[in-house]
Structures are given as structure tokens and as C-alpha cells.
Design a protein that fits this description.
The complex is a heterodimer of chains A (430) and B (147).
Chain A lengths: L3 E3 L2 E3 L7 H6 L7 E3 L5 E3 L1 E2 L10 H14 L9 H20 L8 E4 L2 H16 L5 E5 L8 H10 L2 E5 L13 H4 L4 E7 L11 H10 L4 E4 L11 H4 L3 E5 L10 E5 L1 H6 L10 E4 L4 E3 L13 H17 L1 H20 L4 E4 L8 E6 L4 H9 L3 E2 L1 E3 L4 H7 L4 E5 L6 H17 L6
Parallel strand pairs in A: 5-17, 7-8, 7-9, 9-10, 10-11
Antiparallel strand pairs in A: 1-2, 3-4, 6-12, 11-12, 13-14, 15-16, 16-19, 18-19
Helix pairs in contact in A: 2-10, 3-10, 4-5, 11-14
Chain B lengths: L2 H4 L2 H8 L14 E5 L4 E9 L5 E9 L2 H14 L4 H15 L27 H22 L1
Antiparallel strand pairs in B: 1-2, 2-3
Classes of the chains: A alpha/beta (430), B alpha+beta (147).
Bound molecules: pyridoxal-5'-phosphate (PLP).
Chain lengths: 430, 147
């Protein structure tokens, strides 16, 4: 039991869950690989920022749908169609409650974070952004919160500006915000939690300041929603994007939350079935929100799987998840810093369980290969953040990222093998 | 698959003490190639004489052990050889890495044999071939510039 503080919010003292029990819910965590000399390597999965594993409950919910409910939604006048539609729309309501949206009409299903951001850039941006208008991003964005705005800027003549981050600890230099906002600023879109540094950005303050100037704020919640309690009314963000697969749900489903007033003003995203009201050969009217943005047959099973994932997370408790991950991360950081030659990118006071590092002169690809030979899955590369890497003047990092099913002994195993990698590649300690 | 099949002693030796690493004289425009996925980068300086013999070759850059060792091995292999012969070796290496040519062709070429281990690790093939693509581009450039 302990206290932690996330983005200025004190979490209560909580009793944690039994991690071994939790692990039993995830069949894939029992996977083993054959190692050298007929040894058996248990999976140590530390690539959770890329995607997370799925509990049996999510797999079951999706299978149940295909076995007992499968039909197309909204259109069928038969019993299965009613079941499918009810299950799909119930999932929307479940997600709406999870992030405390005012209404389920504020929940748009997308393929993931990337599509959600593209949707806003397309449907909100093209309508409301003009030549010389400014969009404020940060230097630490994932490509998916950069390229859609580059495309929009190219099309409209808008200007992109970037809140810098500190090279020393990977925090956003939010002090620059006031001077960067001006009468041409139309939107601020930043990540809530960095997928490279793990930094949890001070978005509340940022949103308040932006709203003082009547500027809407979009949050990339791909890394935050899976790991932190999220209340969109309290945050008061105008848009929030996140991906199901990073929070125990399936791939292919994600969410755009948008304030209803903003969604109402926006143009459709794609054209097709379901998003229309009445159609003539030469014109059409649009369905109401959120259906206006959901052209074609959606990922029904995905939405149901995501709702099951959310049930699962809620049962554990998001605050407990945050608390547990904070302990795990604090432990991992302290152990890693004891290894000589270790450089960690991202030492923000408020941070999540994403640790990017470079050890000695070992190239991240060699490091990831070495760890893989021990059954440890980490990621090596630029993590879809090339401008960030360029600013740090490094080609890549190795990244270990945790979820609530990781254990302290897995961290010990990682640390032990980091030391072994130093021996192997000949940059031994001392 | 064992790690040591990938990181053979020959590879680790070249990685720790790369041959022909540094700036050198070049008879034509230097080639620079990147592998953006890994952030590997190589710059190649080729000195080809009037008899089409590779008099000297140097490289600089940074990258993983496989890419740097492969570059080092490549420079050792091609130095002093005729361009025509080098072209054949390049095709042997790249063909073997793509699984289109007999990998045993590499056996008689000294340290090149160590690259065979990479073939069992498909995601690392791009690391190993970077230097070979660079030298292929370099030779083509030199020939074009001569005309
Ligand atoms: C911060 C951040 N934003 C956006 C994305 C993109 O998510 P997706 O690929 O699920 O659309 C990711 C995931 O890689 C991420 O970490």
C-alpha cells in the first residue's frame, strides 16, 4: 500500500491485486520458447507500449459474439441483427462510462488512435482550418499525431508549431505555451503520455490555458488511457484518441471521443452505408453523431472485445493498475540506473511504465536480439518518433514497457540479462 | 536458433575492430545509405583506378553489430579486386540473403562465411545487406561518372 501522485492527483491508498492470479487470465503468458541446449524459455513480455496481451475474458466475449450474436448492425430486422446491434451499442455505452463521457453519442468507433486522429484532422481540420492558421503539437509526438497534421497543413496552408521537450529528462517545456499561443492558434494536439519517454504530460494545466484562449485540445491517449484513470469531463479535453489493442482489447478497434458540439460541427470522414440519412443520386444527408463518422460495417466483434477488456480493467481498478505499474517502474528504474553505461531517456517526475534506454555502445537492435534469445520481448528502433530521436541525436533506443501483469521477478530477469549483454558484446562493466 | 549463430566470433571481431573504418580518398561521389528501421547509416568511399581495380575502400557510419561487421567484411573482400569480379560477389551475397542463390557460394570468400548465420534471422537480413547495397550503388555511380 502506498500513495502516488499522477499529474497532480493523489491516488488513494489501495490494496493491490495478486499478480499471479491476474496472469492466469492471460493464456499467452504461458507460452514458452526453446532456448539453447534444449532449455525452455518462458515468455517475458515487455513490449506493452506496442500492444498488450488479451485475457481469456476478451477472447471469450468475441467468440461468444461470433457463435451467438453475429449479424450486421443497425440494418437487420431479425433476432440476430437485434442482438448484434444491442451488443455493439452496449459496448459504446460501456466505453462512454469508462472515460466518463457525458453521452455515448460522444464515442466514435475507429480502427485505432491513428484513424481517430486522422478523422479529426480530416473532418474537423478541413472544415475549420485555413491558410495561416496554427496548430500546436509537441516535439515528442508519435508519427500518428504528426503526419495527419502535416497532411492537413499541406492542403490548407496551415502552420504547425511544436512545444519543445527537455533533452535532459524528456518533459514537455510547458512554460513556452503562453508565448506560442496567439490569435491564429486553432488547435492543440499533444500526447497525454509519451511512448518513448513515458512522460505523463501536464495536460490539465495545458487544457485550462488553451481554453482561456478558446482553443480546443486533442489528446493522444494511446499510452495514457490503458494505464491511468481517465475522466474526460474532469480533464475537459475536446478530443481524445485511444486504441483497444493497447488496453487488453483486440486490434482493429479504437475510439475517438469528441465533445458532442464539436462532433456536430464536423463533416463526415468516409462516405458509405450507415453514415447517411437520406440519399439521392446527386446528394445525401448525414446520419446523426456518432454514426455520421462510421461508414460501412464496423468492427463489431472488436467493439465487443474492447468492452470486455474495459470490464476486465475496471474489475482490477484503473487506480490499482496505475499504482502497481508505478511501483514496478520505480523499481526497474532504480535497478537499471545501477548498471554502469546505462543511459535512460525520460526521467520526468510523473511518468508511466515505458523505459527507453541505451546501454554502453550496444546498438538497440543487438540488445533486443540478445534479450529475445532469453525470451524477453522488448522493442528496438525509433518507436515512430523520428523527430524526437533526431533531437536526442540517437538513431534508436531499446524500450521496455510494462503492464499490470508484469512482475518484479521479470524486472530482475531483465536487469540480469542487461548485464549479460554487456559481457556478450564486449563492453563489460568496470 | 542460437544467438551465437548470428553473432559468430568473426562478426563480433569485425564489429569491435572494424577494418577500413574512417575517411578515405574516393574516385567518385561517396554513397550514403540508411536503414531507417534500425537507424543504421553507412558512408562509403571507393577509390577505383583506371584498370577498374578497387585500390581502396573506406567506410564510416553507425549501426548494429551485424551492419557494421558486414561493412567491414565487405571492404576486406573487395579491396584489390576487379570491379567485374566484385559485382559477381555482391550478387552472390545479396542473392544468398534473399534466399535466391546458393549460400555455399560464400564459403570460399574468407570471412563472408560468417554472414550465412544472418540468414536464419530474417529481420536482420536488412542490416547485413546495407553495406552491399552501398557498394553496388557506389560502383554504378563511379561507372556513370566516368562516362
Ligand atoms: C503515443 C501513441 N500514439 C499513437 C499510437 C498509434 O496507435 P495505433 O497504431 O493503435 O493507431 C501509438 C502506438 O504505437 C502511440 O504509442
Amino acid at each position: 500500500m502506498s500513495h502516488i501522485n499522477v499529474d497532480g492527483k493523489q491516488l488513494e491508498t489501495l490494496e493491490l491485486f495478486e499478480v499471479e492470479e491476474v496472469r492466469n487470465d492471460f493464456p499467452i503468458l504461458k507460452e514458452k520458447f526453446s532456448g539453447p541446449k534444449n532449455s525452455v524459455l518462458p515468455l517475458v513480455y515487455l513490449d506493452n507500449a506496442a500492444t498488450t496481451q488479451k485475457p481469456q475474458q476478451v477472447l471469450d466475449a468475441m467468440q461468444y459474439y461470433y457463435r451467438h450474436q453475429n449479424a450486421n448492425v443497425h440494418r437487420a430486422i431479425h433476432k440476430l441483427g437485434e442482438r448484434a446491434t444491442a451488443a455493439y451499442e452496449d459496448s459504446r455505452k460501456r466505453i462512454s462510462r469508462f472515460i466518463n463521457a457525458r453521452s455515448h453519442r460522444e464515442i466514435v468507433f475507429t480502427r485505432g488512435t491513428t484513424e481517430a486522429i486522422n478523422l479529426v484532422a480530416h473532418s474537423w481540420g478541413r472544415k475549420l482550418i485555413g491558410r495561416g492558421d496554427e496548430i500546436l503539437l509537441s516535439e515528442m509526438e508519435h508519427h500518428s499525431n504528426l503526419i495527419p497534421w502535416q497532411l492537413l497543413a499541406k492542403e490548407t496552408g496551415a502552420v504547425l508549431r511544436f512545444i519543445p521537450f527537455s533533452r535532459s529528462n524528456g518533459t514537455l517545456q510547458i512554460g513556452h505555451l503562453e508565448e506560442m499561443i496567439n490569435e491564429r492558434t486553432r488547435l492543440i494536439s499533444v500526447t497525454h503520455m509519451s511512448n518513448v519517454f513515458g512522460t505523463i504530460n501536464p495536460v490539465r494545466g495545458l487544457i485550462q490555458k488553451a481554453h482561456d484562449h478558446h482553443i480546443p485540445v486533442m489528446l493522444d491517449g494511446a499510452q495514457s488511457v490503458p494505464h491511468l484513470p481517465t475522466d474526460v469531463q474532469e480533464l475537459d479535453c475536446d478530443f481524445l484518441a485511444f486504441s483497444g489493442h493497447k488496453m487488453c482489447g483486440p486490434t482493429g478497434i479504437g475510439v475517438l471521443y469528441g465533445k458532442e458540439k464539436l462532433l456536430e460541427e464536423m463533416e463526415p470522414f468516409q462516405g458509405g452505408g450507415e453514415m447517411i440519412g437520406s440519399v439521392w443520386l446527386d446528394k445525401a444527408t448525414w446520419n446523426e453523431v456518432p454514426h455520421k463518422f462510421e461508414a460501412g460495417t464496423p468492427d463489431i466483434a472488436g467493439a465487443i472485445g474492447l468492452a470486455a477488456a474495459i470490464d476486465y480493467l475496471d474489475r482490477l481498478g484503473m487506480e490499482r493498475i496505475t499504482l502497481y505499474e508505478q511501483k514496478l517502474t520505480t523499481y526497474a528504474l532504480s535497478k537499471m540506473r545501477e548498471i554502469s553505461g546505462m543511459r535512460i531517456f525520460g526521467m520526468a517526475p510523473f511518468r508511466g511504465g515505458v523505459i527507453s534506454f541505451y546501454l554502453g555502445k550496444i546498438h538497440p537492435h543487438d540488445m533486443a536480439q540478445f534479450l529475445d534469445s532469453k525470451g524477453i520481448a522488448v522493442r528496438a528502433g525509433h518507436h515512430c518518433a523520428q523527430p524526437l530521436m533526431r533531437k536526442l541525436e540517437i538513431p534508436a533506443t531499446t524500450r521496455a514497457s510494462f503492464y499490470f501483469y508484469n512482475t518484479f521477478s521479470e524486472i530482475d530477469f531483465l536487469i540480469d540479462n542487461l548485464k549479460q549483454a554487456l559481457e556478450y558484446f564486449g563492453y563489460g562493466t568496470g | 536458433m542460437e544467438l551465437d549463430e548470428l553473432y559468430q566470433d568473426i562478426i563480433l571481431d569485425h564489429y569491435k575492430n572494424p577494418h577500413n573504418f574512417g575517411e578515405g580518398e574516393a574516385s567518385c561521389t561517396n554513397v550514403e545509405l540508411d536503414n531507417p528501421v534500425c537507424g543504421d547509416h553507412i558512408k562509403l568511399m571507393l577509390l577505383i583506378d583506371e584498370n577498374d581495380i578497387i585500390q581502396d575502400v573506406k567506410f564510416t557510419g553507425s549501426g548494429c553489430a551485424i551492419s557494421m561487421a558486414s561493412a567491414s567484411i565487405m571492404t576486406e573482400e573487395i579491396k584489390g579486386k576487379k570491379v567485374q569480379e566484385v559485382r559477381a560477389i555482391i550478387e552472390d551475397v545479396l542473392g544468398a540473403m534473399r534466399g535466391e542463390k546458393e549460400a555455399d557460394n560464400l564459403d570460399e570468400h574468407g570471412d563472408l562465411i560468417a554472414l550465412k548465420g544472418v540468414m536464419k534471422f530474417p529481420v536482420r537480413v536488412k542490416c547485413a545487406t546495407l553495406a552491399w547495397h552501398a557498394v553496388r550503388d557506389g560502383i554504378t555511380k563511379c561507372e556513370q561518372e566516368k562516362k
